[in-house]
Amino acid sequence: MPAPVRGRRNGLLLSLMAPSLLASALAQAQDSGDARTLDSVQVVADRASTATKTDTLLTETPQSIGVVTSDLFIDRGANNLQETLRYSAGVTADAWGLDTRGDASTVRGLDPVQYLDGMRKLYNFSPMARPEVYGLERVEVLRGPSSVLYGAGGAGGIINAMSKHPSFQSAGEIGLQVGSFDRRQLQGDITGALGSSGNLAGRLVGVVRDSGMQTDHIDDDRIYLAPSLTWRGERSNLTVLASYQRDRTASSQQFLPVAATLKAPPGRRLDPSTFLGDKDFDKLDARQISATVLFDHAFNDVITWRSSLRYIDSETEFRELFPDTYSNPENPFIDADNRVLNRLSYGVKPDNRILTTDNALQFDFATGAFRHLLLAGVDYTDFREEALSFSGAGTPIDIYNPVSTGVTIPEWGRLPDQRTTQTGVYVQDQIRYADRVSLVLGARRDHVRSKTQGLRDKTDNETTYRIGVIGDIGANLSPYISYSESFLPVPGQDLYGRAFEPMRGDQ
């Protein structure tokens, strides 16, 4: 069920409930007679699937995990994925500050791997369309090494965003935002059963935004449309999620010199909104289409099959003219009056195609006093990228009178094509004793192959393990002890043509 529309700090939000819901509410009011004041409801997430790939209570999961529901991050005014993670333990939500190029949170000081609906979404640093938070139900943060279930990844952990799914309970909302920086956004979310059979539900989520940003001359425009269907059978469930997203913006990171900001003399400090690029040159246009299929079937009370499949087609064009503030950070100016900076230009056009699938059998059974939830699965990912790029010198600019003199777009050059495939086989057993103690055992074998045009193919094979114990000792306390491992392949090779070793981590 979609979260109710709430006030947001970035502007005025108007909510119009769907007519059918309004009529239903009026009918109930007439039937009940006098109006009643309902008690407030506090929504607390007590389950998560990211840590175990099963629907498990947090109090039975021997790993640090945080869940941020849409109720929370909408109330907090989150406008992007990294802002949903503010106030999450162990997370630096805005590691690069305001940055339209991507969501750059860190977990325990390390870069996490970004997932969507349990499947990896990002594979390198190429810019792509950022997740639309209005289309998310919750965001889960798994802290620590997680390669046993997810394969290649860093030691910091993963961030898993979960999309909104159809509900068989009718609900809907329409919202209008008007806020700072000429922000205007229309958003809508409607869901409910389709037809009279009672086994089909649909949902449609949409966002249209026309907005500026804190940085001058930077737009934050978006079109987002996400239809979805769920079919519910006696022992089977099928959900199909689709999305179309189109973003028009530019880099909000202007790399303002420290000599004119933190260390600026009186009267010489630049305003944070200062734009030092070229409004006719700078751009970050992204288009992304995705389709996801989620299926599960219970053969009986013991065996359940779960399968997920997703395909992403993404195209992005990024261009930026930025000041050279790193060659000589203390004194980057090229004139005697300390006003003029050299600028550099950079651009990249990545086209990404990502196919991901995860298939697992779940066995729910008991051996004496021990209850087992055994998971055995195989996942596969095929990431492909073709890209054009350029870099070069730009025209100088007076930072205190930033009027750009224009720039000619350099000739685009083709980057080496890249392809990465990963196949993983994993097994995990969650053992529950006396409904108070849980033991989690897991192992995984991965085969990762990376192909970069012009270089030798690189292959990495890795086995990772996991073990953890957690117990309920009362008073809402569940201490745990755990050990887990991670590995992350490093692309490329050294000067002698030797492939780099993967980065490995354990906790």
Description:
The structure is a single chain. This protein is mainly β and 507 residues long. The protein is globular. The longest helix has 14 residues, at 19-32. 6% of the residues lie in helices and 49% in strands. The chain contains four helices and 27 strands.
Name of the CATH class:
Mainly Beta
Tell me the fraction of residues in β-strands, as a range. over 45%
Strand elements, count: 27
CATH superfamily: TonB-dependent receptor, beta-barrel domain
Largest sheet: 16 strands, antiparallel
* Cα radius of gyration in angstroms: 25 Å
Tertiary shape: globular
When the domains are counted, the total is 1
Give the helix level as a range of percent. under 10%
- How far is the first residue's CA from the last residue's CA? 37 Å
Question: What's the short story on this structure?
Answer:
The chain has 507 residues and is mainly beta. 6% of the residues lie in helices and 49% in strands.
